């Protein structure tokens, strides 16, 4: 027995109110003995080598304690096990001490009996196990009776947690008409209970709401379609309620649910359909081009790009009077006026309209079902319209010497309405302030009212009004452009007031002055002027006129002996004649001064020297007189 006693150390008894077994802990599992065991082994070897006679003494050993178990959420304090040293004879000579995690808070030990009991309910989800140390102290010597040993109390799971769905809310979408088995979404739930203990955390998914359209895979939570050809146009959204249950769905388990919002996205499984076989519109005949005549709409149950359509017109009469465009917002066909209307010419239009889907998908419909046709009937309403002139404007010509009362031309307007109202004509006074013309109010004949002068006004823009004499007295206007044609009624003249001079020493044949002429008239073939001298009995011995045949002429010296002492000025009459029919002419007398010029031919005095000679004084005297007058004037002003 001594040998057996030497092998015994600590023992633990486990209280098992439910399924726990009694466990005696003194196992010597390989590799599981605490470090102090190596020390005791060394001591044993030493004692055996010395042949000690005290082998009956109990050896101190360290033991690995097996786990103790306590069920979570148990509020009743209860004994869960007992620690006892084999030296404890029931005399209370041994004191048991508990330390480590939860000692004194969650667990306590009876220092006399070694019973371990709980102090409060525990939550496995907060802490799954506790590591504690136990000691046995001899009360007499206050020395350890056994080495300190470590053991574990494990909190045993109960099904006290409800499974929770993750990543809520769940929203998914699938195309309408999806085949059975199409994956919609996957829901995932977790359970805080111990997945390694029983079925507490083993989850099963099921459908609470959404059948027969959807089903869920019990283990994975994958939701799939279970109904063929779900139509978005019939129902666009489904709320699928999925339940998750722990305990593999057995009774007594916890469950929770989540809602998955499933939307059906559109596919092009509908074509455009007109709601009427005939659309009738009315438009007044005076409607402007571009006016909206009406709107037609083909309904398409689809949405977005699948509902977009294009409209077209099939004009059986090929008049192209109307066009149709697609409103990008409402997808309506907008019928527009493309050409002017005339009730008296055509009063009704009939044409076919077609609507075609822009995007087609023959997986759902045959090609021809993406098109629909209808008929348009457009009636033109009669409108009392103003008179219409036969031409949009008039252009006439009249000679400026036309006699008063001469006819220039006639305007003509008509009432296009069926009643054909009488018309009176008049000239807008604001357009013809010269009052050069008048109009016959009955027949629209315009005549000359006063003498015309092309040089004063060569164009007249006359606004003529035609007004109905009955009903609404509607009126319209037209512009008459009248060009006044030129006649040769103005004489030509020299272009400016020429003041020619000739330098002393000028040689015969030299050019003295270049002349040009002007004429207010505007002959059709252009101006052509002729320059000459006044015919005399004797040829002018001093100067001659040389016509350059380009509407200019030059005064040329005939001799070389011009001096200021002989003569300071010469008078030269010049005749200018135009090419009109009859030809007109004018005569201008030029004064040619003799000047003492610089070598370059410039006359510095500008005629002052000639003036002094003609007065019988010297140039120096004249200049001195001018300086005196300037100084005297300055003194008077100061």
Describe the structure.
- With 638 residues, the chain is mainly beta.
- 7% of the residues lie in helices and 39% in strands.
- The strands form 13 sheets. The chain has a four-stranded antiparallel sheet with strand order 1-3-6-5, with no helix packed on it. Strands 2-8-7-4 form a four-stranded mixed sheet, with no helix packed on it.
- Strand 40 (543-547) and strand 41 form a beta hairpin.
- The longest helix is centred in the last third of the chain and has 19 residues, at 619-637.
- Residues 1-8, 14-66 and 607-619 have low confidence and may be disordered.
TL;DR?
With 638 residues, this protein is mainly beta.
Number of helices: 4
> Which class best fits the helix and strand makeup?
mainly beta
Provide the residue-averaged pLDDT. 84
Beta-strand content estimate: 35-45%
Main sheet overview: 4 strands, antiparallel
Write the layout of secondary structure elements.
Elements: H1 2-7, E1 10-14, H2 36-49, E2 68-71, E3 79-85, E4 94-100, E5 107-109, E6 115-118, E7 129-138, E8 144-156, E9 164-165, E10 170-175, E11 183-186, E12 189-190, E13 204-209, E14 214-216, E15 222-225, E16 237-245, E17 255-265, E18 273-274, E19 278-284, E20 292-296, E21 298-299, E22 309-314, E23 322-326, E24 333-337, E25 348-357, E26 371-381, E27 388-389, E28 393-399, E29 407-410, E30 413-414, E31 423-427, E32 437-439, E33 445-448, E34 459-468, E35 475-485, E36 493-494, E37 501-503, E38 511-518, E39 530-533, E40 543-547, E41 552-557, E42 569-577, E43 585-595, H3 608-615, H4 619-637
């Amino acid at each position: 027995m001594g040998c057996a006693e030497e092998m015994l150390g600590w023992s633990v008894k486990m209280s098992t109110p439910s399924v726990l077994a009694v466990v005696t802990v003194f196992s010597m599992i390989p590799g599981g003995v605490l470090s102090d065991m190596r020390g005791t082994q060394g001591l044993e070897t030493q004692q055996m080598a010395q042949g000690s006679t005290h082998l009956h003494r109990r050896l101190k050993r360290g033991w690995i304690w097996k786990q103790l178990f306590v069920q979570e959420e148990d509020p009743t304090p209860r004994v869960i096990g007992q620690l006892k040293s084999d030296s404890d004879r029931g005399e209370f000579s041994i004191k048991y001490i508990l330390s480590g995690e939860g000692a004194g808070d969650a667990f306590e030990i009876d220092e006399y009996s070694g019973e371990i009991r709980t102090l409060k309910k525990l939550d496995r989800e907060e802490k799954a196990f506790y590591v504690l140390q136990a000691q046995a102290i001899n009360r007499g010597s206050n020395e350890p009776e056994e080495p300190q040993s470590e053991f574990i109390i494990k909190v045993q799971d109960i099904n006290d947690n409800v499974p929770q769905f993750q990543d809520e809310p769940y929203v998914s979408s699938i195309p309408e008409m999806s085949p059975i088995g199409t994956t919609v979404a996957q829901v995932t739930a977790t359970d805080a209970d111990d997945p390694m203990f029983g079925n507490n955390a083993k989850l099963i998914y099921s459908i609470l709401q959404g059948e027969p359209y959807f089903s869920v895979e019990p283990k994975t939570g994958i939701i799939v379609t279970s109904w063929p050809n779900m139509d978005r146009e019939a129902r666009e959204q489904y709320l699928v309620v999925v339940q998750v249950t722990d305990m593999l769905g057995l009774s007594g388990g916890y469950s929770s649910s989540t809602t998955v919002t499933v939307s059906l996205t559109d596919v092009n499984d509908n074509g455009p359909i007109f709601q009427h076989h005939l659309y009738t519109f009315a438009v007044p005949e005076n409607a402007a081009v571009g006016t909206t005549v009406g709107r037609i709409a083909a309904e398409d149950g689809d949405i977005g790009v699948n509902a977009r359509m294009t409209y077209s017109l099939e004009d059986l009469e090929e008049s192209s009077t109307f066009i149709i465009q697609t409103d990008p917002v409402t997808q309506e066909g907008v019928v527009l006026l493309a050409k002017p209307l005339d009730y008296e010419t055509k009063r009704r239009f009939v044409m076919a309209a077609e609507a075609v889907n822009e995007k087609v998908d023959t997986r759902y419909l045959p090609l021809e079902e993406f098109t629909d046709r209808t008929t348009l009937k457009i009636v033109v309403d009669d409108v009392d319209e103003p008179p219409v002139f036969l031409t949009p404007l008039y252009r006439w010509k009249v000679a400026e010497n036309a006699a008063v009362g001469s006819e220039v031309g006639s305007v003509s307007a008509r009432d296009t309405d069926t009643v054909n109202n009488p018309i009176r004509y008049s000239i807008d006074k604001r357009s013809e302030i010269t009052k050069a013309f008048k109009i016959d109010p009955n027949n629209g004949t315009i005549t000359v009212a006063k003498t015309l002068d092309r040089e004063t006004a060569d164009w007249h823009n006359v606004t003529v009004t035609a007004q109905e004499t009955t009903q609404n007295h509607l009126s319209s206007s037209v512009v008459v452009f009248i060009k006044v044609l030129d006649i040769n009624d103005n004489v030509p003249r020299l272009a400016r007031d020429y003041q020619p001079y000739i330098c002393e020493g000028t040689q015969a044949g030299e050019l003295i002055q270049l002349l040009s002429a002007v004429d207010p008239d505007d002959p059709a073939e252009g101006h052509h002027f002729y320059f000459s001298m006044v015919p005399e009995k004797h040829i002018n011995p001093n100067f001659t006129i040389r016509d350059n045949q380009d509407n200019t002429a030059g005064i040329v010296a005939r001799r070389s002996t011009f001096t200021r002492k002989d003569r300071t000025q010469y008078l030269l009459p010049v005749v200018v004649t135009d090419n009109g029919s009859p030809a007109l002419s004018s005569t201008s007398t030029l004064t040619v001064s003799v000047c003492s010029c610089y070598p370059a031919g410039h006359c510095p005095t500008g005629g002052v020297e000639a003036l002094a000679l003609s007065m019988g004084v010297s140039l120096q005297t004249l200049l001195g007189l001018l300086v005196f007058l300037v100084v005297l004037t300055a003194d008077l002003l100061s």
